[in-house]
């Protein structure tokens, strides 16, 4: 009798189950993050009894959530009803260097559960769904909802902190010594302040809207960079400040080609000399290769109306704005560094 063939990887039905129940994993991850379970486990394993007492939750319910997350590798049940951190779970700690804590709170926020069920609207019309759900664009809604705006900005700051070391390792900013680097849509200034700390010959400016810059000013001061890093508020669709180079992290992907071109053309117009634009963005890989960008692209479709792009699409966008794509540098993260120089 022939021996049974060992199945390789998940079976087709298992693949579909994982996708169909993805919202359950998101909700469980959000709940555990919100409760601070990873912080409670950082000194070692704890029983669900102790964890439930510390979080004022029902022990039986908490156990069931942690058991499910343990099956996905977030925690590990080291003995009956006693859990410890895994390398993935460790990233949910608030004091972790590469913490995913704030990103888990953003992706699991009810905002996504209100908008993503409306995906069919985007499929039928090509439009975003925020206007359908809230009557406002997603960024206008963020500006109005201060609590959600804080969740979003904290997530972007945390994500920037994780991405910045690989970006700085991949790209040499020393050519900007004595010059000014403007961070367009720079949020709380995390990316720019880290760059300025490594390159003391640079000056910088964080450019964003008023309600976001309110969070940038104290962070710049705490970093001891108030003398080298200015802030400027404005609308990058109208104009941007003068600078020797512009950096944008996950900004261009928020917008359609038409609106992205407006931003890039404003950089072209305001830039000094052979201005360079440096983008920190995902670059979509061809074919069926898994990549975070292919899922993030759905967020862009439904919410701001932007898109993730291929290398060819970025090159064409730069060309139309009067720039020439000079290099794409892969990093030890999901993002790349794209550099373009004024061509005309």
Protein described:
- This protein is an alpha/beta fold.
- The chain has two domains: 12-92, Orthogonal Bundle (Arc Repressor Mutant, subunit A), CATH 1.10.10.10; 160-342, Rossmann fold (3-Layer(aba) Sandwich).
- It has helices spanning 12-20, 22-35, 37-41, 48-55, 59-71, 87-90, 101-107, 110-115, 119-125, 130-134, 138-144, 146-170, 190-198, 210-222, 257-270, 292-302, 311-320; strands spanning 46-47, 75-79, 82-85, 180-184, 203-208, 229-233, 243-249, 271-281, 323-330, 336-342.
- The protein has a seven-stranded mixed β-sheet, with helices on both faces. Strands 1-3-2 form a three-stranded antiparallel β-sheet.
- β2 (75-79) and β3 form a beta hairpin.
- The longest helix has 25 residues, at 146-170.
- It is globular.
- The protein starts with 11 loop residues before the first helix and ends with a strand.
């Amino acid at each position: 009798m022939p021996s049974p063939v060992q199945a390789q990887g998940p079976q087709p039905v298992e693949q579909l189950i994982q996708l169909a129940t993805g919202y359950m994993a998101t909700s469980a991850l959000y709940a555990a993050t919100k409760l601070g379970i990873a912080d409670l486990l950082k000194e070692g394993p704890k029983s669900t009894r102790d964890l439930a007492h510390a979080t004022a939750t029902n022990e039986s319910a908490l156990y069931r959530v942690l058991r499910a997350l343990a099956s996905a590798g977030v925690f590990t049940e080291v003995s009956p009803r006693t859990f410890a951190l895994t390398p993935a779970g460790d990233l949910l700690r608030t004091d972790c260097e590469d913490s995913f804590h704030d990103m888990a709170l953003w992706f699991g926020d009810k905002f996504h559960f209100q908008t993503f069920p409306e995906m069919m609207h985007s499929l039928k019309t090509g439009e975003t769904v925020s206007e359908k759900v809230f009557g406002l664009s997603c960024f206008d809604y963020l500006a109005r909802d201060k609590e959600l705006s804080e969740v979003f900005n904290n997530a972007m700051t945390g994500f920037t902190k994780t991405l910045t070391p690989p970006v700085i390792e991949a790209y040499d900013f020393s050519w900007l010594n004595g010059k000014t680097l403007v961070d367009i849509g720079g949020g709380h200034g995390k990316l720019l302040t880290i760059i300025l700390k490594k390159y003391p010959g640079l000056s910088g400016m964080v450019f964003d809207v008023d309600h976001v810059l309110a969070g940038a000013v104290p962070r710049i001061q705490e970093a001891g960079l108030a003398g080298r890093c200015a802030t400027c508020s404005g609308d990058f669709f109208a104009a941007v400040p003068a600078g020797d180079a512009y950096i944008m992290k996950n900004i261009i992907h928020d917008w359609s080609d038409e609106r992205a071109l407006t931003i890039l053309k404003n950089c072209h117009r305001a830039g000094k000399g052979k201005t360079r634009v440096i983008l920190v963005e995902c670059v979509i890989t061809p074919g069926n290769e898994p990549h975070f960008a292919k899922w993030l692209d759905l967020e862009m479709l439904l919410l701001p109306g932007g898109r993730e792009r291929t290398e060819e699409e970025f090159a064409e966008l730069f060309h139309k704005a009067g720039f020439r794509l000079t290099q794409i540098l892969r990093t030890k993260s999901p993002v790349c560094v794209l550099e373009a120089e004024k061509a005309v």
